[in-house]
């Protein structure tokens, strides 16, 4: 069913409803209307990295890890898997009359906010700090979720619109002030791409205000969304965000006024309960019945496009047996392997098991299921931790000794212990009796995540620093003092500064929150069954550099992210090592009216097959308005066998060389130059990789 037909059906249905019936459909847990054969429907469902909060489902790496894969083709496949499993679960639940929360087909994913500050707890939900990378990954995931059929396989949602990235503690009252340049250059491109390219069915408003207006009732944001970009879907509030109008932002006096303001400014669906006052708002004259029906039509248009109004869908026959099927689990594991970033390696990795009789696996995240998940996760029927992955891979070959070493943040593991660090002796003993050590540290969703509130009872808020908790820092120092070859396996959803431990360790592998199959993927990389190939989607800073950044509440891009950072970071955006030795040996340029095609010649001079990510950055020499550093404008993941060559073509559209001035105008300025390589064209990337990008004038 196409949109025009769906809208006509929606208009006909809504015209038969009373005002009270139409108003009842604007709340996330919409009740049934038996006399019109309208079934109840709960709009609230999540699929950030696989179907979430609804029982068993295939769990992918957290979104930040998917960003690190730089593999938009795989991310689209993963979106399709989430949609397939979501349909299977919806079909099964509906057959049993279960239409509860997290059982519907409207997924409030992906999160395409920009991870501008490394302290933001929800940054793990995003694809990183770069607008272009975020756009490509967001479009891919949304296209996968919505499918290629006549209607919608599921409905994707671009959130949180807009200019939203912390602090969590202030989100219900905060005004994010952004210049027109930063809006156009940084905060809006991903949303625009999802609307124009992916035809995303839904957009969710953020909790905060942007430039003075609540995001769920913003004339300016709606002007861009429906006016400039042509958005035709429905707009949903973040959960209980409309209550913030009177409780937090104080732009209205009561719930009736808040409901009227939100609907008048284009917010069709309320995740919350403020729209229980919609009829009262109409009776008071603050809201028209026509506006109520307009929003109801938009919502029923989506329901008709999904084929869930009794007319049926091509997806109704998807069986429950597709959930966690082997093909889906293999894709999740592939994503985990592609997401992991090798930050350091002095030659210890891959581990040579012919020289290792005993391997020590130490750390609070070594056998942690929670460290596999990230937030907004589903429930896997089986989890494979890093410790289990190594034990399975080395069974019968290498003895594996284990110790938790410490808690994530508590000073002692056993409450009855007399002393702090009560697992240190065990950890040190394991290290002393091992030929090599895998030290697994980091965070989990209890330590970085979303602020706790009504809709998110398990939240954990922002980070205070980039250092690991003191207990883990002491553990790393103690284990490294044993002098054994040691790789630190870091599990986190954001930038971490390992300090002296990162300098002393022989290797550092960043696994993010890699999903239920993550331990097997980590073992594959540590043992050399596959080469690491992930690249950082965020800048890793030194902890002390936080003091030089603008305030967390300052949304200017000055001295933020790789495009504007004024110092030398710990690890740069786009960086990641592999076990191969791929080099860009040449570039051909072809220019047409719509842009450029850059064809890079690659050669793997190493001894191991590997994937690599070819990256194109654009610099506008002499420009006063261009970002401080060259910006990403194209990328492509490519497989290069050992001793072989490959070619990869990348398309750069003509407007990629334009820059934004302070008025937000897209203008030609300076001399455009492309840099093609395996990372940024910066001194630190060259130092860490020993490779330079190739410069090509546009």
Description:
By secondary structure, the protein is α/β, with parallel strands linked by helices. The chain folds into three domains: 3-322, TIM Barrel, CATH 3.20.20.300; 340-527, Rossmann fold (3-Layer(aba) Sandwich); 582-697, Immunoglobulin-like (Sandwich). Helices cover 29% and strands 17% of the residues. The chain contains 21 helices and 23 strands. The strands form seven sheets. A six-stranded mixed beta sheet has the order 9-14-13-12-10-11, sandwiched between helices. A four-stranded antiparallel beta sheet has the order 18-17-22-23, with no helix packed on it. The chain is globular. The mean pLDDT is 97.
Indicate the structural class: alpha/beta
- CATH topology value of the largest domain: TIM Barrel
- Helical fraction: 25-40%
Overall morphology: globular
Class of the largest domain in CATH? Alpha Beta
Rg (C-alpha, Å) = 25 Å
β-strand amount: 15-25%
* Largest sheet, spatial ordering of strands: 9-14-13-12-10-11
Question: In brief, what are we looking at here?
Answer:
This protein is 29% helix and 17% strand. It is of the alpha/beta class.
State the main characteristics.
4-stranded antiparallel beta sheet, globular, 3 domains, 698 residues, Immunoglobulin-like, single chain, Rossmann fold, 6-stranded mixed beta sheet, 29% helix, TIM Barrel, alpha/beta
């Amino acid at each position: 069913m196409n949109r025009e037909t769906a809208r006509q059906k929606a208009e006909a249905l809504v015209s038969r409803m009373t005002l009270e019936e139409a108003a009842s459909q604007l709340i996330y847990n919409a009740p049934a209307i038996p006399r019109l054969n309208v079934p109840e429907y709960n709009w609230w469902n999540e699929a950030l990295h696989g179907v979430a909060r609804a029982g068993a489902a295939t769990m992918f790496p957290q979104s930040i890890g998917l960003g690190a894969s730089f593999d938009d083709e795989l991310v689209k496949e993963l979106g399709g898997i989430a949609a397939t499993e979501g349909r299977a679960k919806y079909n099964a639940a509906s057959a049993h009359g279960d239409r509860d929360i997290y059982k519907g087909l409207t997924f409030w994913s992906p999160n395409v906010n920009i991870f501008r500050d490394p302290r933001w707890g929800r940054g793990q939900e995003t694809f990183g700090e770069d607008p272009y990378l975020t756009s490509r990954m967001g479009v891919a995931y949304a296209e996968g979720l919505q499918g290629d059929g006549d209607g919608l396989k599921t409905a994707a949602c671009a959130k949180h619109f807009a200019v939203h990235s912390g602090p969590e503690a202030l989100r219900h009252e905060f005004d994010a002030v952004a210049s027109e340049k930063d809006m156009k250059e940084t905060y809006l491109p991903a949303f625009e791409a999802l609307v124009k390219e992916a035809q995303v069915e839904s957009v969710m408003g953020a909790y905060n205000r942007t430039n003075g207006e609540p995001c769920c009732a913003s004339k300016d944001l709606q002007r861009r969304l429906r006016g400039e970009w042509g958005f035709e879907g429905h707009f949903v509030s973040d959960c209980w965000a409309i209550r913030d109008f009177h409780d937090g932002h104080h732009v209205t006096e009561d719930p009736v006024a808040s409901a009227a303001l939100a609907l008048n400014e284009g917010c069709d669906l309320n995740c919350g309960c403020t729209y229980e006052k919609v009829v009262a708002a109409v009776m008071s004259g603050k809201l028209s019945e026509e506006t109520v029906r307009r929003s109801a039509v938009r919502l029923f248009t989506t329901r008709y496009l999904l084929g869930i109004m009794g007319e049926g869908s091509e997806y109704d026959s998807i069986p429950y047996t597709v959930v966690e099927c082997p093909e889906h689990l293999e894709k999740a594991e592939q994503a985990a392997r592609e997401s992991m970033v090798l930050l350091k390696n002095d030659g210890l990795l891959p581990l040579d098991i012919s020289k290792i009789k005993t391997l020590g696996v130490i750390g609070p995240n070594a056998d942690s299921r929670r460290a596999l998940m990230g937030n907004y996760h589903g429930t896997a029927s089986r989890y494979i931790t890093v410790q289990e992955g190594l034990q399975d891979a080395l069974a019968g070959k290498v003895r594996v000794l284990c110790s938790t070493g410490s808690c994530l943040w508590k000073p002692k593991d056993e409450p009855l212990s007399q002393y702090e660090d009560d697992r240190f002796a065990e950890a040190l003993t394991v290290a002393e009796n091992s030929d090599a050590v895998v030290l697994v540290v980091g965070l989990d969703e209890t330590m970085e995540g979303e602020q706790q509130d009504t809709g998110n009872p398990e939240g954990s808020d922002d980070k205070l620093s980039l250092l690991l908790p003191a207990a883990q820092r002491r553990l790393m120092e103690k284990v490294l003092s044993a002098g054994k070859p040691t790789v630190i396996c870091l599990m986190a959803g954001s930038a971490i500064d390992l300090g002296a431990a990162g300098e002393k360790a022989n290797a550092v592998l960043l696994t993010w929150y890699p999903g239920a199959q993550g331990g097997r993927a980590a073992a594959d990389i540590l043992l050399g069954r596959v080469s690491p190939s992930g690249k950082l989607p965020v800048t890793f800073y030194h902890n002390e550099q936080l003091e030089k950044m603008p305030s967390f509440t300052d949304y200017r891009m000055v001295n933020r992210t790789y495009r504007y950072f004024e110092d030398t970071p710990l690890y740069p955006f786009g960086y990641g090592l592999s076990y191969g030795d791929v080099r860009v040996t040449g570039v051909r340029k072809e220019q047409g009216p719509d842009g450029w095609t850059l064809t890079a010649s690659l050669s793997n001079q190493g001894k191991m097959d590997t994937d690599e990510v070819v990256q194109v950055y654009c610099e506008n020499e002499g420009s006063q308005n261009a970002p401080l550093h060259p910006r990403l404008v194209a990328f492509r993941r490519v497989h290069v066998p050992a001793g072989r060559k490959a070619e990869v073509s990348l398309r750069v559209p003509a407007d990629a060389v334009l820059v934004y001035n302070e008025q937000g105008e897209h203008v030609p300025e300076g001399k455009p130059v492309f840099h093609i390589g395996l990372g940024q064209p910066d001194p630190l990337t060259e130092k860490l990789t020993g490779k330079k990008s190739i410069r090509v004038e546009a």
